Amino acid sequence: MSTKQCPKCGHKRLLNDGLSDTECPKCGIIYAKFSSVKIETTKQCPFCKEEILKEALKCKHCGANLKETDIGPGCAVILLLCGIVFIILLFSGKLDVFWAKAISPFDKKPSIKITDLINDPKKALKMNKKLCSWAKREYLRNPSLWNQVAKESYCKE
Fold this sequence. Notes:
Order of helices and strands: EEHEEHHHHH
Number of strands: 4
Shape: elongated
């Protein structure tokens, strides 16, 4: 004998019991409508491809975070203001000074050991370029402490 199980309540019934084949005798749902509602309320997880509820924030199968990140109006205003400040600094010619001051706590003067110079003379050329870049940034941070001769002494080609 073949049986059919209700997808909602789980009631098992015989197919030839004389009742309607389209609805459950226990809970009264119509099978075709229940399956169409189920399809509309579920979606496929983009990571593991299992079926989950549309409203799910986290997949119950693989644990993936399904919440869409929205920056919101407050973050959008902050990003807009940062963009405006960046453009003003860029067109006023002060962006390089701002950057030099912003990185100053992390901008250490490059140094090289004499033994490294003897072992690898090419390293001296690389260090000279780094030292010249550092001197230019240092001049932007504190122009009163540097004279032109000091700046040029680091940047000899």
